[in-house]
Design a protein that fits this description.
With 296 residues, this protein is of the alpha/beta class. Helices cover 36% and strands 19% of the residues.
Length: 296
């Protein structure tokens, strides 16, 4: 990392009896800015963003339950309601409202729905591919009957119950897997994310920190009309970002989902995939800084 100043401080809070972790980048007298990571990721995913913005913001980056250095759910269930509750608890306990939020993927889904539940508590929100899978992928999922979806989920849970965390002989091996997952990452960033994303096992091998159960796609979610209702309740300026080379998301303007937001604008980033804040960091920061600096 280029910044020679001290890094963030690790802290914990409790939500539904789980000890959850977050990092605090200091400057408590500045406006609060939450950075919320995506699935199978961790809070140190945001280090480059935090270093760039830390002078003007009090930055807090949580590890979602089952991720990073937060505890795993004791019943192996990772519901959207639980994730939203955790975010609500962090904002409530640390008295962060009105808060600005930058979020990615699963973190964006959580943050946008939270902002719809409690619109008065969010000042501005950026969501990187945070409105969920494309309508085509969702339609494929919903075309299955509840019997098929529940049966698939049960079989997946049984498979995950017998699946031990993958062990890598060295951090170098885990680093190579990280690069395979996102070929846009530079070697430096992939090594940094790997170093903060693994634990060393007793036998000297390394495993990813996240709970394997977070991989499971739930058999049901909020009803589409309820999700749209929450999006429509968001009262603050909203920026929806997507990577034009992403295999996961589609353009929210073209697929119609951006129209459900009152104050949303959309920006697609060239030469960027799902992790666009890594793939095109300078362009991402330029767009975000302009958005955050605007008068409300």
């Amino acid at each position: 990392m280029a910044d020679a100043r001290p890094g963030p401080t690790s802290r914990t809070f409790f939500s539904q009896r789980l000890r959850l972790h977050y990092v605090d980048w200091g400057n408590a007298d500045k406006p609060p800015l939450l950075l919320v990571h995506g699935g199978r990721d961790h809070c140190r995913n945001w280090d480059w963003t935090a270093e760039a913005l830390r002078d003007d913001w009090h930055i807090i980056a949580p590890d979602l339950r089952g991720h990073g250095d937060s505890q795993w759910s004791t019943d192996a269930n990772y519901t959207m309601a639980g994730y939203i509750y955790d975010l609500a608890q962090l904002i409530h306990q640390q008295r962060l409202a009105p808060v600005t939020i930058i979020s990615h993927s699963l973190g964006g889904v959580i943050s946008l729905r939270y902002a719809g539940l409690y619109p008065d508590t969010v000042k501005r929100i950026v969501a990187i591919e945070g409105i969920g899978p494309s309508p085509e992928r969702l339609a494929e999922h919903r075309a299955k009957t509840i019997v098929d979806r529940m049966d698939e989920w049960i079989r997946e849970q049984r498979m995950l119950a017998g699946r031990l965390p993958r062990r890598y002989a060295s951090i170098e091996d885990a680093f190579k897997r990280m690069q395979e997952e996102n070929p846009h990452l530079t070697a430096e960033r992939a090594r940094h994310l790997t170093a903060h994303g693994v634990n060393q096992n007793e036998d000297g091998t390394y495993s990813w920190k996240f709970d394997n159960y977070v991989r499971a796609f739930p058999p049901y979610d909020m009803a589409p009309r309820d999700i749209v209702t929450l999006w429509g309740r968001i009262a603050c300026p909203t920026l929806l970002l997507w990577g034009k080379e992403s295999r996961w998301a589609s353009d929210p303007r073209e697929d119609g989902r951006a129209a459900h937001f009152k104050h949303a604008r959309v920006a697609g980033i060239d030469r960027a995939g799902h992790w666009l804040h890594h793939d095109r960091l300078d362009e991402f920061l330029r767009i975000v800084r302009e958005f955050l600096a605007e008068k409300s």
